[in-house]
Specification:
single chain, alpha+beta, Beta-Lactamase, 7 domains, six-stranded mixed β-sheet, five-stranded antiparallel β-sheet, 22% strand, disordered C terminus, EC 2.7.13.3, HATPase_dom, phosphorelay sensor kinase activity, phosphoprotein
Length: 790
């Protein structure tokens, strides 16, 4: 019983303990349930949604995830969340799936911003591996935050940042391309940024060199360096401007430097403006104004300049003289109205019934932007031209020109014009004056009658093209109208004198000329040459007939020379045979006759050869050989041939040939013929006891041979006819020659490319000079100097 009682007591105690323990566990379970409900409520109201992704891909998430994704139900698997229709953009779904897979494999967290397709929410996904208390290995806990407002603010800030970046880039580009040197200094006054203009100004390679070497643009001003000035500006906190010298591109310039302190710790920004040109322009303006006033003071016209307040600031001496003003009255810059009053008191302005109104109108010139010009006629007959030019600064420049003499000259000119018109009308030539624009300006009666026009047609001042087109039918060749028009245009535009001839349809012929005039116009003259043209035509026909007769004469002489040569050869041959005794021994008288026949035939043969050579030379068919000719030897041979004839008249022949005469390319026989003719001419005309000198010398390009005598000489008339073949044949009294020696010699010399000249004076003798070119002689053949005398 005791044992049973003990067991019952133990069982009862155990039951009491079990009941108490159950009640405690119930209370704990209820508390845990309350805690879980509170936590669930907290999660439901939290700004983020937790999502547990198990290793097999299943998802545990609150129901409100569906509304965030814009779905009707929450996704149950990760494949549903990242699918195309899972609620996220396809690109975001693929990226999120890759992030989750990487977190499962590598146990690393991730953060990604995604966009829900079915709603306007922007979501921020933070993922990390889940602990073992939440899921087995490979589980991932994902927190999804509603970042719509945050993302919008981020996008707004990003846009503002992009805008600021673009503005900064634009500003940097503007600073870089600015033509002004610009820079930035840090808080310690060191250069941190310079533009290209700064680099070019200091002639550095790039901005890095400027910053590293601390190359300053401006030199110290008043002992203050640019760094000290920058520190002072930052300390004061206000901009500063200073002017100082600098060396830009190797040239000294004056710069105006502007530096501005930047907010906070940003330092100082500055730029420089080149003031050298401005200062030079100001100095130049001052100099120009001084020069202008000096020039105005030297003008003969009266000049007065008024300032913007209408006070007199400048006048010259002619102004005082022209208006009889007292200089003391102009001192102190009197106003415009007072100056006009002084001019009126001196009686040097036009009289007007209402002078105040007239003065007020002139005062309004200060307010006008256009220059004014008017003429003043004074009581004493003086004509004044008044020119008023408003000045840019509001002043007025007035110029008073005395045109009294010009008016008088204009009257005299009108008189001269009337005289000129009367003179033009009395001229035999037709005269028309065309202006620079081609219009007919003046004409005389002869011009009008030539073209058979009335005064009204000419008074319309037609242009030259209209005038010629309307009168082309009056010409024998209407196209010639364009020639006349072009000549007038050439005289007015190109300033060239041209002339020509035009034939009218009625047979009249006019020589015309277009002459440029100093005033830019063109004078067109027409002279009737109908009669002189007819005379000219008759003379031309006669000249052609004479030329034809001369050709016939030349042909006759050539034929006659050939025809006479055959019987002359026979006579000479038979005479030689008779002299040789082929016909038997001749008596003395017969032998003298035969000698006379042979002498005459030889002279006649020479004359025939001379005529034939002249004829061939004139026709250009004279045969010449081309070979080196020793002129010294040829001259001596010719001198030897004339010694006998000279000895008969006791004439002395002297030969003085220099070695420099050398050789020429030519025909030795023809050159000898020319020298013979010169010597024969000298012997023929030289009286007994005379002297003939043959002198020869030469240069590199030519050789010269002179035949001179101390004979009676020739007058001007004889010299003019010396080389004429037939002009003095009828006057010659000698029967031995027909005077063709000099003409033939001239032709022979000219056939060699040389020239034959004659110098003579009555009582002083005659000198004939033959000059021959060397031709294409070898260089070794050229003369080297020295002399040879024979």
């Amino acid at each position: 019983m005791v044992l049973l009682g003990a067991l019952a007591a133990i069982w009862l105690g155990a039951g009491v303990w079990a009941v108490q323990s159950g009640l405690a566990m119930r209370r704990a379970a209820q508390h845990a349930k309350g805690q879980g409900d509170r936590l669930a409520n907290l999660l439901q109201s939290a700004p983020a949604i937790p999502v547990l992704i198990r290793p097999d891909g299943r998802i545990e998430a609150p129901a409100r995830l569906a509304s965030w994704l814009g779905r009707e139900t929450s996704p149950q698997y990760i494949s549903e969340l990242t699918a195309i229709d899972g609620g996220l953009r396809p690109s975001d779904g693929e990226a999120l799936a890759a992030d989750i897979a990487a977190a499962q494999r590598a146990s690393r967290g991730f953060v990604r911003a995604v966009q829900a397709v079915g709603s306007s929410r922007s979501l921020l996904v933070r993922g990390a591996p889940a602990g073992p208390e939440l899921a087995n290995a490979g589980g991932v806990i994902v927190w999804i935050f509603d970042a719509t407002e945050t993302q919008a603010r981020i996008e707004q800030l990003e846009q503002q940042c992009a805008n600021y970046h673009d503005a900064l880039e634009a500003l940097s580009g503007l600073i870089e391309v600015a033509p002004l040197p610009m820079w930035h200094r840090t808080r310690d006054a060191r250069l941190s940024l310079v533009n290209s203009a700064y680099v070019r100004a200091v002639e550095a390679e790039d901005a890095a060199q400027v910053i590293n070497d601390a190359i300053e643009l401006v030199e110290p001003i008043d002992g203050i360096t640019p760094q000290q000035a920058a520190l002072s500006i930052m300390a004061e906190g206000r901009p500063r401007t200073r002017v100082g010298p600098a060396t830009l591109h190797g040239e000294r310039r004056m710069l105006e430097v502007f530096e501005v302190p930047l907010p906070g710790e940003s330092g100082v920004a500055g730029f420089a403006i080149d003031r050298q040109e401005l200062e030079s322009a100001r100095a130049e303006q001052t100099r120009i104004m001084a020069t202008q006033r000096d020039m105005l003071d030297r003008l003969s016209a009266g000049v007065a300049q008024f300032g913007r307040d209408r006070s007199l600031t400048f006048w010259n001496q002619p102004f005082i003289s022209l208006f009889a003003l007292d200089p003391d009255h102009l001192v102190g810059e009197p106003p415009f109205e007072r100056v006009l009053d002084r001019m009126r008191e001196a009686g040097r302005i036009p009289e007007h019934r209402d002078f105040p109104a007239w003065r007020a109108e002139r005062r309004d010139w200060f307010l006008s932007s256009d220059p004014r010009e008017e003429n003043w006629l004074l009581a004493d007959g003086t004509h004044l031209r008044v020119f008023a030019q408003p000045l840019p600064d509001g002043g007025l420049l007035m110029i008073f020109e005395d045109r009294t003499e010009q008016v008088q000259l204009s009257s005299a000119r009108d008189t001269l014009l009337r005289v000129r018109t009367a003179t033009f009308d009395s001229l035999f030539e037709g005269i028309g004056v065309f202006a620079a624009d081609g219009r007919l300006h003046l004409w005389n009666n002869r011009f009008r009658k030539i073209w058979d026009l009335d005064e009204a047609a000419l008074a319309a001042h037609p242009r030259i093209d209209e005038f010629m087109n309307s009168n082309a039918a009056r010409l024998a060749k209407p196209p010639q109208a364009s020639v006349v028009r072009e000549l007038v245009r050439s005289a007015t535009v190109e300033r060239k004198q041209r002339n020509g001839r035009v034939i009218f349809a009625d047979g009249r012929t006019f020589d015309f000329a277009a002459i440029p005039l100093p005033d830019g116009n063109a004078l067109f003259t027409m002279l009737d040459v109908t009669d002189s043209r007819r005379i000219e035509s008759v003379l031309r026909e006669q000249n052609e007939a004479l030329e034809q007769a001369d050709k016939v004469k030349t042909a006759f002489l050539a034929n006659m020379s050939y025809d006479l040569r055959t019987p002359l050869t026979s006579i000479a041959g038979f005479a030689e045979m008779m002299k040789a005794g082929y016909a038997g021994k001749l008596p003395t008288t017969a032998r003298e006759y035969v000698d006379a026949i042979m002498t005459s035939t030889e002279k006649l043969s020479q004359m025939i050869d001379t005529v034939l050579d002249l004829t061939q030379g004139e026709a250009g068919t004279l045969p010449l050989e081309r070979a080196p000719v020793d002129l010294a030897a040829v001259a001596r041979d010719c001198a030897g041939r004339c010694v006998a004839a000279a000895a008969e008249k006791k004439i002395e022949v002297v030969v003085d040939i220099k070695q420099s005469i050398g050789r020429v390319m030519g025909d030795a026989r023809r050159i000898g013929q020319a020298i013979d003719r010169l010597l024969d001419n000298a012997v023929e005309y030289l009286p007994a006891g005379g002297r003939i000198l043959i002198h020869g010398d030469g240069q590199v390009q030519s050789a010269r041979l002179i035949v001179s005598d101390n004979g009676p000489g020739m007058d001007a008339r004889a010299q003019a006819r010396a080389f004429d073949r037939f002009s003095h044949i009828a006057e010659r009294k000698r029967s031995e020659t027909i005077g063709l020696g000099l003409p033939l010699a001239k032709q022979l010399v000219e056939a060699h490319g040389g020239k034959l000249t004659l110098v003579s004076e009555v009582g002083q003798g005659t000198m004939l000079t033959m000059e021959l070119p060397r031709g294409d002689l070898p260089r070794a053949e050229l003369p080297t100097g020295g002399a040879a005398r024979g």
